[in-house]
Amino acid sequence: MPSDRAAVGLSVAVGGSGLAPDACATGQADVRTHRPLLPGTLLHACSMSKLVAAVTVLRLVELGTLDLDTDASRYLDVPLLRADDAHDRPVTLAHLLSHQAGLVDPDAAGEPVVAGASPDLTALLNEGVVPGAGPVAVTRPPGQEFVYSDVGYWLVEHAVTRATGRPYPDVVDDLVLAPLGLTGPTPVPAAESAPLAGTHAPTAWAYVDAGTGGRLDRVVDSGAAVGHGTDGTALDDERAVYRGLAAAGLWATPTALLRLLVDLVDSWHGSSDGVLTPASARTLWSAPGPTRHAALGAFLLRHGTETVVQTHGWGAGFQGIARAHLDRRSAVVAMMCSDPGTDQDGSAVGAVADACTEAPGSS
């Protein structure tokens, strides 16, 4: 049953192959100012950022810059220490993207940090999240079990940055988001012109490293929704910042994430016009290890005889879910700017996704 806590603001987009997205929003983006939440308002994608990271890695694999199945240490300048019983099998990017690298995160890894300059991932990976904890370590045999890991995605981000010599958000923008029209300013519909004057992009980043070429115009600003707690009040920090962009650094509208999902579904079905080739799309949504629900950056669910791909996020003041229905060639994205106090199975975003999953002939 969905939580009885009403969402402060809820934004939804549905659509499918060959269909224009249908988006709507209700509630408020900021209860203090009564600013309405609109379909074009940015929300924190939280861990849905991981799917975008996985697509980026597959693009770099296509370009020959990265390899999914080789030892990821070749792309890193940080040690991957191993516990005595962790075996010496290489940790690959496929392991990292599917949470099967043998990493167990310390509790602090998924906590927000003080907003400001981007965290030094090299220092975090070398020195540990908790002061004195030491370098990141593989504590379980790689490729043998599922353990959800934000730290694994810090390593992915670090590998992308070192292999390309460019800031992570710039690589993602150029290879994934820009080809879908998700980085440049888009006209604000008339209904939105009062609260959001001018133009805005349907995606943004929690921060960029401007010192190495990152675009400051791509940093999330005051036009985005504000996070709200379980009691419906705005968070003191308004918009939480996390240590890794690949793990939880993307802000987006539901329509932006929907466009990506539909593009990937089309590629999965054989389209050669998408961000990924059909072969890469099939690799993206295949389980690379013994945990059959763990794909790259997302999870594989069964709904009757249908395969459903799901990614979801839950952070300070925000929650979201995105599902792609492979057989129907359709998708749904639901995001809210409040913490419902329960996971997606019991919240408003989960109820929306479930309703679309159950509806015959729809997403």
Give short descriptive properties of this protein.
363 residues; alpha+beta; 7-stranded antiparallel β-sheet; 3-stranded antiparallel β-sheet; 9 helices; 14 strands; globular
Structure report:
The chain has 363 residues and is α+β, with helices and mostly antiparallel strands. It has helices at 49-62, 93-97, 121-127, 150-164, 168-177, 245-248, 254-268, 278-284, 348-358; strands at residues 9-16, 22-30, 35-36, 43-44, 81-82, 137-138, 186-187, 199-200, 203-205, 250-252, 299-303, 306-315, 318-325, 330-336. The chain has a seven-stranded antiparallel sheet, with helices on both faces. A hairpin with a 5-residue loop joins strand 1 and strand 2.
The portion of residues assigned to helices is 10-25%
What does the average pLDDT come to? Answer: 89
**Backbone structural class:** alpha+beta
Largest sheet: 7 strands, antiparallel
Oligomerization state of this entry? Answer: single chain
Portion in strands: 15-25%
Element-by-element helix/strand order: EEEEHEHHEHHEEEHEHHEEEEH
- Which ranges are low-confidence, i.e. pLDDT below 50, for 5 or more consecutive residues? 193-198
Topology, number of strands: 14
Whole-angstrom Rg: 19 Å
- Give the CA-based shape: globular
SSE map:
Elements: E1 9-16, E2 22-30, E3 35-36, E4 43-44, H1 49-62, E5 81-82, H2 93-97, H3 121-127, E6 137-138, H4 150-164, H5 168-177, E7 186-187, E8 199-200, E9 203-205, H6 245-248, E10 250-252, H7 254-268, H8 278-284, E11 299-303, E12 306-315, E13 318-325, E14 330-336, H9 348-358
Parallel strand pairs: 5-6
Antiparallel strand pairs: 1-2, 1-14, 2-3, 4-10, 7-8, 9-10, 11-12, 12-13, 13-14
Helix pairs in contact: 1-4, 1-5, 1-8, 7-8
